[in-house]
Amino acid sequence: GLLTLSAASLGRVMRVDVHEGQHVARGQVLAEFDNPLDSAALGNTQAFITAQLQSERSGLRQDLSTQQALAASQAQTLRAALASL
């Protein structure tokens, strides 16, 4: 028999796995759709994660710089104390 198909959401047909008149089995994938809303959400999520990682990296670099300056200061203090002995 013939069957009319409709999609639950907007999207574009990316691939059709059957041809007209072909017999199909229950559960067989007939076509693949691209949902632009899902793609947009994924893009937003990736952009958010990228921004978070860049912020974290910047903070870690600042922490490293602070720790290096502190270590240099402590080393200088220890050298001065050693020289005065």
Give an overview of the whole structure:
- By secondary structure, the chain is mainly alpha-helical.
- The protein has one domain (12-83).
- Helices cover 56% and strands 11% of the residues.
- It has one helix at residues 36-83; strands at 12-16, 31-34.
- A two-stranded antiparallel ribbon has the order 1-2.
List keywords for this structure.
rod-shaped, mainly alpha, 1 helix
Q: Please state how the strands of the largest beta sheet are arranged side by side.
A: 1-2
Global outline: rod-shaped
The total strand number stands at 2
Number of domains: 1
Give start-end ranges of low-pLDDT stretches: none
Mean pLDDT equals 88
Largest sheet: 2 strands, antiparallel
- State the secondary-structure class: mainly alpha
First-to-last CA distance: 100 Å
Q: How many helices does DSSP assign?
A: 1
- How would you spell out the order of helices and strands? EEH
**Into which percent range does the helicity of residues fall?**
55-70%
Radius of gyration: 31 Å
Strand content: 5-15%
Write a brief structural summary.
Helix content is 56%, strand content 11%.
Question: How do the strands and helices of this protein lay out in sequence?
Answer:
Layout: E1 12-16, E2 31-34, H1 36-83
